[in-house]
């Protein structure tokens, strides 16, 4: 085992404080509409220019191992808030710094850190409770656009995200991609889309667009590979008599079976297209079951004891239109009963709530979107690669914040809501130490507004006192330097973002305050850690 070095008591807490301040000071300059950019050097490629708190925080590593522990803890505040709410990382960092700095001053003077922590927790509980009473539900497109515009620092971003959510619904999937041009565009795929195209180019009906289009087709959903023409012919004869096109979705179609389909297609006997089933393993099964529900078809699987030769027209699904390209298939207006689709959607929602894996959750969310709304793709364009990365990141942040707003509602932004919570926290705590803990939270709640004002070139303390005396919901518009009704001016924050920022900041800050010793690996003479973890001699 590698040798360790230790630091205790006040020295340990001060080292954590220096590390926490290093991260917070770098991050907080980005807060508010007049926040500054941070340029981050990259070992490879062009530097990153960003106004996103968590992006800045993630890049910071300090030389001093003790201080670096403090830095990593504050980075945890930012990343946890980002994971839960998708925004509010800078606010969370500023709150954590304020609680740490004020709290350590009191602990150094002999205060009890455990009682102090209890006071902080009680104050945060009360603040979150008050926040819940003040949130406003967001239902209209204008409200969604406001939230996205504030988070992305751009009305274009806000309007595009509002359009996307309007078209695909709150359960819809919205993906943000890099465009090859300078224009930023929104494309919406109606219906159920999956990333598998036609198996053979002979199925194409529109040579110019290299697409196959089927109107009112019957749909066979089959679990296994189809190789034998003999198994397929009875079904093809039945479909041919119905004079409707046929879409076959199966693990694969090859050999005699594929040749038979192509010949029937080319001779004009049957308009047919075969595509491979999406996904793999259990996920493939689940997606095929989704398609079966959406199209009112039967998922033909050997588990049911049904063979291909026994399939009837009643087992086939249908859709108003199916478009198949080389890479994807889109089913529009499946023939499934609304109640059946709704039941499947509810089942997926329950699975999303019950799963702990973020990957599983993401895949379930995609399936839910395809069943319930559709898929919107925002292609972000910019003149340079550096600008493109920064703009794409702002779109992703704004999208997360917007989803949070739809989920838990909004509150007035600009740091004013946190300041308005202060009176509700008076009188919290039974012991003196607990009361001090609550007062530390009250003081910390002023800091985001103070920082927004400072970044706008104003005197923070003057602005805080002014906002305290304004009616609830009024505050500073840092862009115009006017005091306004924040909701009316469109300056809003998702309640979930504000709540997560406060809870995560208090959690990590409380841990720092109640820390008494630090243990780090001893560095060797070259400056690396004794197990080879250092990077001082990395020359490339």
Automatic annotation (TrEMBL):
Pfam families named in the record: Cpn60_TCP1
Purpose of the protein: Together with its co-chaperonin GroES, plays an essential role in assisting protein folding. The GroEL-GroES system forms a nano-cage that allows encapsulation of the non-native substrate proteins and provides a physical environment optimized to promote and accelerate protein folding.
InterPro entries named among the record's database cross-references: Chaperonin_Cpn60_CS (IPR018370), Cpn60/GroEL (IPR001844), Cpn60/GroEL/TCP-1 (IPR002423), GroEL-like_apical_dom_sf (IPR027409), GROEL-like_equatorial_sf (IPR027413), TCP-1-like_intermed_sf (IPR027410)
Binding positions (ATP): 30-33, 51, 87-91, 414, 477-479, 493
Quaternary organization: Forms a cylinder of 14 subunits composed of two heptameric rings stacked back-to-back. Interacts with the co-chaperonin GroES.
Transmembrane domains' residue ranges: none
SUPFAM superfamilies, A to Z: GroEL apical domain-like (SSF52029), GroEL equatorial domain-like (SSF48592), GroEL-intermediate domain like (SSF54849)
Coiled-coil segments on the chain, per record: none
Organism: Capsulimonas corticalis
Gene symbol of the encoding locus: groL1_1
UniProt keyword annotation of Electron transport present: no
A GO cellular component annotation in the UniProt record: cytoplasm
EC number: 5.6.1.7
Protein name, per record: Chaperonin GroEL
Family membership noted in the UniProt record: Belongs to the chaperonin (HSP60) family.
Example of a GO MF term: ATP binding
Alphabetic keyword roster: ATP-binding, Chaperone, Cytoplasm, Isomerase, Nucleotide-binding
Location(s) in or outside the cell: Cytoplasm
Any Gene Ontology biological process: protein refolding
